[in-house]
Amino acid sequence: MSYKRVMNKAAVPSMILGLVVAVGLAFGISTRAAAGACVAPVFDDGSHSHSLAARMVEEYGFHITFAVISQPMIEAGPSDWHLSVDAVRALRDAGHEIACHGRTHAALTELNPSQKADEILGCRQQLRDTVVDPLTFVYPYGLEDEKVIEIVRAAGFIAARGVQPGLNDQSTDRYRLYSYSVMRDTTPVEVLNWITQAQEQEKLLILTFHEVVENPSEISITPQNLRDHLTTIALSGAPVVTLTEGLTSQTCN
C-alpha cells in the first residue's frame, strides 16, 4: 500500500504519517510485506465504540474481527454500552468477522464444567440465531484451561485467542493463539516493532484492542490512538486480515 493511498483513504494528518515513516527509517524497518506476515486486529467485548472503530478501520480498506459477548448484545438498546444485534449485523454486513467472547464474559477457569459449556456453547448459539455462525472464540480475560479448550474445540470453533504475548505460525496451538494487547500507553513504535518481528519471522501478528473512547482506561485507547496505529499498520505493508483469514489464507501461512 502506498503512502499516497493511505493519505487519500484516511485523511491522516501529515505530521503523523511523517512520524511513522521517520520511526520506520530510524529502526531500519521495511515497508515491504513479507510472505506469511499478516496482521489480525481483534476488538474485544462488543462495545458501542466499536461502530466508530469499524468506520475508521474501513477508511483504510481493512476488514477485521470483533469479539462479541452475546447476552448483553441481545439485551442492548441503541444507547447501551454494548452493541445491539442490529449493530453487530452491520459489522457483519461491512465484511468484518464476528467472534464469540462468551455468553456473559465470565472467567471460564472459575466455572464448573456445566457452566463453562453454557458460556461457550450459549455464546455460539445466540450468535448463530441472531447474527452469524462464528468460527473463532476469544477467551474472556484470556483465561482458559484444558476443559475450556476441550469444549471450544468440540463446539466446532476452528481456533481461540488468548492474551499471552507472542506471534503465531503453523506450529502454534490454534486453541492458544498469542496476541499483543494495544492499550492506552502503547505507542506506534511498539506496534511497528511487533509488525517488523512478524515480517522478519513470517508469522501472524494478532493485535488485541478494547474500547475506543476519548477518556480511556488503561486497556482502552482514544480515537486518535487508533488512527495512529492504523496508519502504522498501513505503512508497514503487512496484509490486514480477519482472525479466520489469518489462519486459513495462503498469504499468511
What can you tell me about this protein's structure?
The chain is α/β, with parallel strands linked by helices and 253 residues long. It has helices at 3-10, 14-26, 49-59, 70-75, 85-93, 113-130, 146-154, 188-201, 223-236, 243-248, and strands spanning 38-45, 65-68, 97-100, 136-138, 159-161, 180-181, 204-209. The protein has a five-stranded parallel β-sheet. A two-stranded parallel ribbon has the order 4-5. The chain is globular and about 45 Å long. It starts with a helix and ends in a 5-residue tail after the last helix. The model is unreliable at 1-14 and 28-35 (pLDDT under 50).
The share of residues in helices is 40-55%
Query: Got a strand count?
Result: 7
* Overall pLDDT metric: 90
Within CATH, the superfamily carries the name Glycoside hydrolase/deacetylase
Structural class, by secondary structure, is alpha/beta
Tell the overall outline: globular
CATH topology: TIM Barrel
Name the descriptors:
alpha/beta; TIM Barrel; 5-stranded parallel sheet; 10 helices
Concise account of the structure shown:
The protein is of the alpha/beta class and 253 residues long. The chain has ten helices and seven strands. Strands 3-2-1-7-6 form a five-stranded parallel beta sheet. Strands 4-5 form a two-stranded parallel ribbon.
Give the helices and strands, then pairings:
Layout: H1 3-10, H2 14-26, E1 38-45, H3 49-59, E2 65-68, H4 70-75, H5 85-93, E3 97-100, H6 113-130, E4 136-138, H7 146-154, E5 159-161, E6 180-181, H8 188-201, E7 204-209, H9 223-236, H10 243-248
Parallel strand pairs: 1-2, 1-7, 2-3, 4-5, 6-7
